[in-house]
Design goal:
Blueprint: H1 8-18, H2 33-50, E1 54-55, E2 61-63, H3 64-67, E3 81-83, E4 90-93, H4 98-106, E5 116-125, E6 137-146, H5 151-168, E7 173-178, H6 182-189, H7 194-206, H8 209-215, H9 220-228, E8 231-232, H10 233-241, H11 247-266, E9 271-274, E10 289-294, E11 302-308, E12 314-321, H12 322-327, E13 338-340, H13 346-354, E14 359-361, H14 370-376, E15 381-383, E16 388-390
């Protein structure tokens, strides 16, 4: 049975109760949510493993220079740092697990056959939250496909992320696709100078058509088209193919076209959207990239896409955020819990647990009738000495 999340009111009450005890952005996760989140994480990892992704477990803290290698610089301002009293070197608490997996692939597993499929789950910590995700500590689960440059790798990653989340029970998924290299290719084909290209890039990020028209020069009409055609993927692809593009930009559009066709054929119920001018949040990506959403769920469920590892390998992967994923799950009924009245034998308790029942044993007599005592303890069933009875 897929794990489900608690109702919003219970989660809010848990958060409110911890405000005075913990720093902003940190909280205690209480039962049953902690159990459900762990079950969700294991379910995701099982989905990854079913497609050949082997789990790795990097440390929570390591030397900062390894965490900041390559694209890790993009999260430098989000890292907590401490001095290691043993080595007298600066260490960092991880802000993201993807880069750690890339490090493992390029060092401990550099001789392993490629493509290399690795999966992970764990906690990350950041200096600041965001408006959509105020939490500074949260759980990630994800997977990385390293050493594969074919478009088939992008298709595999997109489908696996959506399938794993849908298997949990999250409904009405949508996958937003972007290609951070398309706009730069268009700018380069029109000969934009670096300063002009930077201004045009900034206008695209802000979705500011007036600023973009003023900054982009000869590339303006094509870049404005990127803003206007963002939306459902099939229509956006049609709009892109109508543009007169350079060979480099046309090749990028052809890959997007194939990706949309293949993902749509394999997952017809997955809503695909395309924002060809999107760049924010994908600064270190080097190809097709994704954001996964669900209707009525605050924030993105996860992000992924193409990048180059510090060792220079082509890779693509996807990171899911457990806090957002849990918000997309319907309420789960209480976990079955069997009450054993005071005096029940250890042999009986062991037999019931062997049959798959979770037991809650009374350590002393309360004088209450067993059914009422079971209800007061939060159990769903009780043992009458011969049989299991519902509360």
């Amino acid at each position: 049975m897929a794990p489900k999340a608690r109702g919003k009111s219970a989660e809010a009450a848990e958060t409110d109760a911890s405000v005075a005890l913990l720093p902003a952005g940190l909280r205690d996760v209480l039962p049953p949510r902690a159990d459900w989140e762990a079950l969700a994480s294991e379910s995701l990892l099982a989905s990854f493993a079913a497609q050949g992704y082997a789990r790795v477990k990097p440390p929570l803290i390591e030397f900062e220079e390894t965490l900041l290698a390559g694209s890790g610089q993009d999260l430098a301002g989000q890292m907590f740092r401490v001095m290691d009293p043993v080595s007298q070197r600066m260490m960092g608490l991880r802000t993201d697990i993807t880069l750690q997996v890339a490090r493992i692939a390029g060092s401990r597993l550099k001789l392993a056959p490629r493509p290399l499929r690795l999966a992970y789950a764990g906690q990350v910590l950041r200096v600041r939250g965001t408006q959509l995700r105020p939490e500074r500590q949260f759980a990630q689960a994800g997977f990385e496909l390293i050493g594969a440059a074919a478009l088939a790798a992008d298709v595999e990653v997109a489908l696996l992320a959506a399938e794993a989340v849908a298997k949990l029970g999250v409904a009405h998924l949508s996958l937003d696709i972007t290609q951070p290299l398309l706009a730069p290719a268009i700018m380069a084909s029109h000969g934009l100078e670096p300063r002009q290209a930077k201004a045009a890039r900034r206008a695209l990020d802000r979705k500011d058509a007036a600023e973009l028209k003023a900054a982009a020069g000869a590339a303006g009409p094509d870049l404005l088209k990127l803003l206007s055609i963002a939306g459902p993927a099939p229509a956006a692809i049609k709009g892109l193919r109508a543009l007169k593009l350079s060979a480099e930009a046309a090749a990028i559009v052809a890959d997007l076209d194939q990706l949309v066709a293949q993902v749509s054929a394999a997952a017809p119920n997955l809503l695909l959207t395309l924002d060809p001018g999107e760049f924010r949040g994908f600064e270190y990506h080097t190809g097709i990239s994704y954001t996964l959403f669900a209707r009525n769920v605050r924030g993105e469920l996860g992000r992924g896409g193409r990048y180059v590892t510090p060792a220079g390998e082509t890779a693509t992967g996807f990171t899911l955020y457990l806090d957002s994923v849990m918000r997309g799950l319907p309420a789960m009924p209480p976990r079955p819990l069997l009450y054993l009245p005071h005096g029940s034998s250890h042999a009986v308790a062991a037999k019931l647990r062997a049959e798959g029942h979770s037991t809650w044993a009374a350590l002393e007599s309360t004088g209450a009738e067993p059914r009422q005592a079971a209800k007061a303890a939060g159990c769903t069933h009780w043992w009458d000495g011969k049989a299991i009875r519902p509360v």
